[in-house]
Amino acid sequence: xxxxxxxxxxxxxxxxDVPEARRRNMAAVRGRDTKPEMAVRQMLHxxxxxxxxxxxxxxxxxxxxxxxxxxxxxxxGCFFHRCPNPxxxxxxxxxxxxxxxAAKLARNVERDLANQAALESAGWRVFVVxxxxxxxxxxxxxxxxxxxxxxxxxxxxxxxx
Length: 161
Fold this sequence. Notes:
This protein is 40% helix and 11% strand. By secondary structure, it is of the alpha+beta class.
């Protein structure tokens, strides 16, 4: 079996013309414990669900894992993961270096789809929460999560005794 192909890398552009304030802003973007993720975690915990975070043995290290329910909740930022909602204001492509950003964000979407497919093929159920959903109607989001996860409490998969 041949070794897996290395991920495609874009040539790194020259950032010498980027203002220092923009550099600080982009450096502050985190990959975990983001505000939307924390809000979803607090919501799930208040609803009575218990979960694990960032399981490294699963494809894409999902944000929230509920092993007893064989379910994953993935909280995605609208900008970096290209929210499919056409009304989302956070999913706008930057005008500066538009070609570079388009390629970078397209790779993110490809990776998200591949990770989701790998999780589903391994038997995991995946629920994607978008940043704009967290910011808008949390009550509706809580209901969607409850419908997806089932009643809180100890849950066992059907294959377990």
